[in-house]
Design goal:
This protein is of the alpha/beta class. It has helices at residues 40-43, 57-71, 88-101, 124-130, 132-139, 154-171, 183-194; strands at residues 29-35, 79-84, 105-107, 176-181, 211-216, 221-223. α2 packs parallel to α3 and α6 (154-171) packs across α7.
Length: 239
């Protein structure tokens, strides 16, 4: 993603109507997708979905490091907005980012994780044991399989994410938007930008607190740098 640290000047308004420093008129709109920091349920491989699970201590540290990276990037003046899923693990990740960038935080329920229905709150092993057929169909990535217990189909979830992304790039043309969301949202974004079919196996990483970029040329999305986590290796306190 090539986030190069720079010395930041005073905060300025960076709405979609203002120009960007050192940029040409031909720049594409970009979305930097940030997966939320790690939670205890991530570590336990327990489905979260729409259940509101907070970050753990490691996740909060990841959020601070991600904020530092974005605020110190060479492109920070092109970042027009920070949008976030309304689930607390995403909000807790986005708050330090918005604060570091001097931008308001915009809550967006369309960036929520997929609704996993009866899978939510359970581990992979528990679902495989108790609902083996549903588990098989989920693992097969059947696009129109509606998860039991009021869950979303993969196709419906993918359509929700694509609509959300198109709204973002339409609102901020030639600018960068940070969208803090979830692993499932990132997976959809990768497939939208790369053309990978919904039912194709996943070979791309969906890492906690990673930076993942897609670009929009006015018609279609294209894949940028993906699964950047080098910023998480930095020491949190320089002192």
């Amino acid at each position: 993603m090539s986030f190069e640290a720079v010395e930041r000047g005073p905060e300025v308004e960076r709405g979609p109507e203002t120009g960007q420093v050192g940029s040409g008129s031909g720049q594409r709109a970009s979305v930097i997708l940030v997966r939320h920091g790690v939670t205890d349920w991530n570590r336990a491989r327990r489905f979260q979905g729409h259940i509101d699970i907070p970050l753990n201590d490691e996740g909060r540290r990841q959020a601070e490091l991600t904020a530092r990276c974005l605020a110190g990037s060479a492109e920070c003046d092109r970042i027009a907005a920070v949008h976030v899923s309304d689930l607390s693990r995403a909000v807790q990740t986005a708050e330090p980012i918005a604060r570091a960038l001097g931008l308001p935080l915009r809550h967006d329920p369309s960036l929520r994780e997929r609704h996993y229905g009866s899978f939510e709150g359970r581990t992979h092993e528990e679902i495989d044991r108790d609902e083996p057929e549903a588990w098989r169909r989920w693992r097969a990535r059947e696009p129109d399989f509606v998860l039991p217990g009021g869950g979303e189909s993969l196709r419906a979830f993918h359509a929700r994410v694509e609509a959300a992304l198109r709204l973002l790039v339409g609102k901020y043309p030639s600018r960068i938007v940070v969208a803090v969301a979830h692993g499932g949202v990132l997976d959809c974004a990768y497939r939208i930008a790369s053309g990978l079919p919904l039912d194709a196996p996943r070979g791309h990483a969906l890492l906690n607190a990673s930076l993942n970029r897609i670009e929009f040329d006015g018609t279609r999305f294209a894949l940028g740098a993906w699964a950047e986590v080098s910023h998480l290796d930095e020491a949190l306190d320089d002192a």
